[in-house]
Design brief:
Blueprint (H helix, E strand, L loop, with lengths): L14 H22 L12 E7 L14 H12 L3 E9 L2 H16 L3 E6 L6 H7 L5 E5 L8 H9 L8 E8 H11 L8 H10 L3 H13 L5 H19 L2 E8 L6 E9 L2 H22 L3 H6 L2 H30 L3 E2 L4 H5 L8 H13 L3 E4 L9 E4 L4
Parallel strand pairs: 1-2, 1-4, 2-3, 4-5
Antiparallel strand pairs: 5-7, 6-7, 8-10, 9-10
């Protein structure tokens, strides 16, 4: 299953970093707590349950201005949970100066009692060891390179070792849209058929199938840009990877500005209905923060519209999302006598997955129930576990 959103997040200094950091901040802690709470085999009396987190392209760990980077968000999540869980953080970085800074950040958290290791080298050199370390316990892989991601076969091999739904395995990947656009442009020029970028994308995608797909998408779009081609490649990649690993897949494009082409796509993989639900809410939360910090476009500055622009857009989107979710819930209730919401995430959110937060589902369900249009069992503590059904006949 693949779903796209119009999400993105802007940091005026590091536009490619802020969105994923918001995702990590919103998602990693729930992942750790939810997955780490279930009983684990082999845990002795007095020992804590374990969870393993990997940042395979960890960078410096922290920016020069003191703000946390991806690796530190993982370390922070481990620190928050350490009283109840043993969260092991594995960080890998190939660039020596960045690695040396990363070791300093890691040492700070080890001094606070966090289980963390920093390794120098390619993530492929350490992936098997991380998977083995996570035997029998939840595992989250974050793979965020500046260019090509890890070879398809390497990632698939790791995921095949963790075929079962439990313990859970989840992956968040960064696929460079600049790379896929450039590769698609090269692919249409036969005289450049030996260009190195083609081989790089072949390795990442598990074959050259993407070339024809990219060309067909560009022709069908009727546009001069390669945005449609890049979108087609990443959607195909996510679907193939998800199918091969028997996982749900979600694609999230990330833009510098709302109407710009994506600079990268995030691909999320999970076997859990709960993971799919919570990730969508995390993306929606990140998107609202993005809109709030995005600032006016040049045209908005010129027309002095920004004072109402962002607030108005958020309100308008949320109202449209509410109405769409109501329609989705009505349709869901018509087709199921008892439908637990979390088992129908994409049906509940539809086109607003990653845009509407789960609190809109709460409002929609309550309003429909009050109007007598559905039956609602809201006894579960978590909204996602609520159950809806068709309205009762008089």
């Amino acid at each position: 299953m693949s779903a796209g959103t119009s999400s993105g997040l802007l940091d005026k200094v590091r536009a490619q970093s802020v969105f994923k950091h918001q995702i990590l901040d919103s998602y990693i802690t729930p992942f750790v707590r939810m997955t780490g709470s279930r009983p684990q085999a082999g845990i002795r009396v007095g020992e804590q349950n374990r969870v393993v987190l990997l940042d395979g392209f960890a960078g410096r760990g922290r920016y020069p201005d003191g703000k946390p980077a991806s690796a530190e968000y993982m370390l922070l999540a481990a620190q928050k949970a350490k009283s109840a869980l043993s969260v092991e953080v594995v960080l890998v970085e190939k660039y020596r100066p960045s690695y040396e800074n990363l070791t300093q950040v890691t040492a700070e958290y080890r001094a606070r009692g966090v289980l963390a290791d920093a390794h120098h080298g390619q993530v492929e050199q350490h992936l098997d060891d991380v998977v083995n370390r996570a035997t029998g316990v939840p595992l989250f892989l974050f793979l965020d390179p500046c260019g090509r991601n890890v070879p398809f076969e390497v990632l698939v091999q790791a995921l095949r070792k963790r075929r079962s739904k439990w313990p859970p395995t989840e992956v968040l990947l960064n696929i460079s849209a600049d790379l896929t656009r450039r590769a698609a442009g090269v692919a249409v020029k036969e005289e450049l058929s030996s260009h190195a970028v083609l081989g790089h994308v072949d390795t990442m995608c598990g074959g050259d199938w993407w070339r024809q797909r990219a060309m067909e998408a560009r022709v069908a779009s009727g546009e001069e840009s390669w945005e449609a081609a890049a979108e087609a490649v990443v959607q195909g990649y996510a679907t193939l990877l998800g199918t091969t690993a028997q996982m749900h897949s979600v694609v999230v494009p990330v833009r510098r500005q709302q109407h710009h082409q994506p600079i990268y796509h995030l691909v999320f993989l999970t076997r859990s209905d709960y993971g799919l639900w919570v990730f969508g809410d995390a993306v929606a939360t990140a998107r609202q923060k993005w809109l709030e910090v995005l600032g006016p476009s040049d045209s908005e500055r010129a027309e002095m519209l920004f004072d109402v622009g962002v607030d108005y857009q958020i309100r308008t989107e949320q109202e449209a999302g509410l109405q769409a979710i109501k329609a989705n819930l009505l349709k869901l209730a018509d087709h199921h006598n008892r439908a637990q919401l979390v088992q129908h995430t994409t049906e509940v959110f539809g086109a607003y997955y990653g845009v509407a937060q789960e609190k809109l589902v709460r409002r929609a369900a309550r309003e429909l129930d009050k109007q007598g249009l559905i039956t609602l069992d809201a006894t579960a503590n978590q909204l996602r576990n609520w159950v809806i059904g068709p309205r009762q006949q008089p």
